Amino acid sequence: GNSVTQMEGPVTLSEEAFLTINCTYTATGYPSLFWYVQYPGEGLQLLLKATKADDKGSNKGFEATYRKETTSFHLEKGSVQVSDSAVYFCALSDLGYSSASKIIFGSGTRLSIRP
Amino acid sequence: DAGVTQSPTHLIKTRGQQVTLRCSPKSGHDTVSWYQQALGQGPQFIFQYYEEEERQRGNFPDRFSGHQFPNYSSELNVNALWLGDSALYLCASSSWAGGTETQYFGPGTRLLVL
C-alpha cells in the first residue's frame, strides 16, 4: 500500500541555519503531496502542497519539490527561526473509490530551533 | 471565516465507556474525515463522510462509528473504550466537488481513557 517515510528527529538547529527534512513516498498512481506542521498543543496546519511531478509548493519561506524520479518531497528553508519549532509531517493523498481521499502521514519530525 | 471546530477540547473516560466527539467543517466544505493521532505518531485515517454516508474507512474496528448531519457537521462515536484509544482525535474538512485530497484540520479533541 501507499506509505510515507520521513527522517527521524529530533532535529536541532541554530537560528538562521538551513533546514532540510527528508521525505520519500511509495504510491501507485500520482498522489498529491503535502507538508503539515503541528505546533505544541495544536492541531495540524497545511504548510504546502504539490499536486503533480516537478511542482514546487512554497509557503512562509518553506519549499518542497515533487520529484517523481526519486519519489521524494524534501522540505527546505533557507533560514529558520525559533518560531519554526514544531513537528513536521510529510503526507500524501490516497484517492479511493468514488472520489473519497484519505491522507497518509509519515511519523513526523520534531524540529527545535535554538536562539 | 470560521475554520474547522471541534468539541470538546479534552475528555477523560474510563475503560468500557462510550464517547462522542463533534466537528463542524470549514465554511463551504461538505466532507468530513476523522483521524486518530497517538502520542508521538502521525495521524491515522478512521473514516470519511459525505452526503451523510461513510465513503471510505480505514483499518479501525466497528467500535468506531460516525454520523454526518444535513448541515455537514459530524460526530465520531467510540464504544467500549480501551486504554489504547487514548489519543488526539482530529477532524478534517474538504470539498467533495473540489477534491477531497486537500483537507483542513481542526484543533483536535484529546481523549484520555483510564
Fold blueprint:
The complex is a heterodimer of chains A (115) and B (114).
Chain A: E1 3-6, E2 11-14, E3 19-21, E4 23-26, E5 33-38, E6 44-50, E7 56-59, E8 62-65, E9 75-77, E10 86-95, E11 101-105, E12 109-114
Parallel strand pairs in A: 2-12
Antiparallel strand pairs in A: 1-4, 3-9, 5-6, 5-10, 7-8, 8-9, 10-11, 10-12
Chain B: E1 5-7, E2 10-13, E3 19-24, E4 31-37, E5 44-50, E6 53-57, E7 64-68, E8 74-78, E9 87-95, E10 99-105, E11 109-113
Parallel strand pairs in B: 2-11
Antiparallel strand pairs in B: 1-3, 3-8, 4-5, 4-9, 5-6, 7-8, 9-10, 9-11
The outline of chain B comes out as globular
How much is the radius of gyration of chain B in Å?
13 Å
Looking at how many chains there are and whether they match, the oligomeric state comes to: heterodimer
* Continuous helix count of chain B: 0
- Count the helices of chain A. How many? 0
Strand content of chain A: over 45%
Gap between N and C termini of chain B: 37 Å
Characterize the biggest β-sheet of chain B: 7 strands, mixed
Count of strand segments of chain B: 11
Structural class of chain B: mainly beta
Structure in a nutshell:
The complex is a heterodimer of chains A (115) and B (114). Chain A is mostly beta strands.
Detailed description of the structure:
The complex is a heterodimer of chains A (115) and B (114). Chain A is mainly β and 115 residues long. In chain A, 0% of the residues lie in helices and 52% in strands. Chain A is built from no helices and twelve strands. Chain A has strands spanning 3-6, 11-14, 19-21, 23-26, 33-38, 44-50, 56-59, 62-65, 75-77, 86-95, 101-105, 109-114. In chain A, strands 2, 5, 6, 10, 11 and 12 form a six-stranded mixed beta sheet that branches. A four-stranded antiparallel beta sheet of chain A has the order 3-9-8-7, with no helix packed on it. A two-stranded antiparallel sheet of chain A has the order 1-4. In chain A, a hairpin with a 5-residue loop joins strand 5 and strand 6 (44-50). With 114 residues, chain B is an all-beta fold. Chain B is 0% helix and 55% strand. Chain B has no helices and eleven strands. In chain B, strands 2, 4, 5, 6, 9, 10 and 11 form a seven-stranded mixed beta sheet that branches. A four-stranded antiparallel beta sheet of chain B has the order 1-3-8-7, with no helix packed on it. In chain B, a hairpin with a 2-residue loop joins strand 5 and strand 6. Chain B is globular, with a radius of gyration of 13 Å. In chain B, 41% of the residues are buried. The chains are: A mainly beta (115), B mainly beta (114). The interface between A and B is medium-sized, with 28 and 30 residues.
